[in-house]
Design brief:
Structural class: alpha+beta
Number of helices: 4
Shape: globular
Distance between the termini: 28 Å
Number of strands: 9
CATH class: Mainly Beta
Number of domains: 1
Largest sheet: 9 strands, antiparallel
Radius of gyration: 17 Å
Length: 207
C-alpha cells in the first residue's frame, strides 16, 4: 500500500504529537446485574459526585472494513479531540500500521482503498472532565442503538510516556471505584494522538 498519495499527516509536515499519556478502561455489564443503561448512569453518577464540573462533550466513531478478496482489515477512528483528523489502522499484530490523514476519508476509501468494504461500526458519546492533571472522558459504547459498555479514557498531563503514567491512571480508577478491562497499549516512547487511536481500535476490536 502506498501512503504518499493519501497525504497522511505524518508525511505532510503536521505535528500530531499530543502531551499526555492515555489509558482506557472498558466497563461492561455483568450478567444478572442490572441493565446496560444503568451501567452508564452509574458511571456518570460516580464521576459527577466526585467531580461535579464537566468541561463539555466528547465523542468518537469507529468503523471496521475488510478487503473483499483477502482477510485484511482496515480500522477507522475519529475522536472529537482531534477534529478534522482520521486515524486508520491497517493489518493486525506485528504487521499493523497506523496512519493519520487530513483528508476526507470517504474520498480516500473510494479512490485508493475501494477494495475495503464496511463490516461493522460503533460510536461513543459522553462527557469530558478535567481534574488536576487528569483529563477524563466518560463515553458510551454504542453499536447501532445498543449500549455495549462504557469507556473511561484518562489522560495524564503533562506526562508523555504511558509506562510512567500507568500507576497514576490506575490509582485514579481505583479512587473512583471503577472496574473493567484496562488497556494501555504496548508501544514504547512518547505518546501521541495516533497511539491513542490505536488503543481505541485495539480495545474495541477485542471486546
Amino acid at each position: 500500500m502506498t501512503h504518499a498519495a493519501l497525504l497522511p499527516l505524518s508525511r505532510c509536515g503536521h505535528d500530531i504529537h499530543r502531551m499526555g499519556a492515555t489509558g482506557l478502561l472498558l466497563i461492561q455489564q455483568e450478567a444478572g446485574k442490572g441493565t446496560s443503561a444503568s451501567l452508564l448512569a452509574d458511571t456518570q453518577d460516580t464521576m459527577q459526585r466526585l467531580y461535579p464540573e464537566s468541561k463539555g462533550k466528547c465523542s468518537f466513531e469507529y468503523k471496521l472494513y475488510r478487503e473483499s478478496e483477502s482477510s485484511r482489515f482496515l480500522q477507522y477512528f475519529t475522536h472529537s479531540r482531534s477534529q478534522n483528523t482520521v486515524f486508520c489502522v491497517l493489518g493486525q499484530g506485528d504487521k499493523q500500521e497506523a496512519i493519520a490523514f487530513d483528508q476526507e476519508f470517504d474520498a480516500i476509501l473510494a479512490t485508493k482503498l475501494g477494495q475495503f468494504k464496511p463490516r461493522s461500526s460503533v460510536r461513543g458519546e459522553g462527557t469530558l472532565y478535567e481534574i488536576d492533571n487528569f483529563r477524563i472522558g466518560v463515553v458510551s459504547l454504542m453499536q447501532q442503538s445498543t449500549l455495549k459498555g462504557v469507556i473511561v479514557e484518562v489522560e495524564l498531563l503533562p506526562c508523555e510516556f504511558v509506562e510512567a503514567a500507568k500507576p497514576a491512571i490506575q490509582e485514579f480508577w481505583r479512587h473512583c471505584n471503577l472496574k473493567g478491562v484496562q488497556f494501555f497499549g504496548d508501544r514504547a516512547g512518547k505518546s501521541t494522538a495516533l497511539d491513542t487511536a490505536v488503543q481505541y481500535a485495539t480495545l474495541i476490536r477485542a471486546r
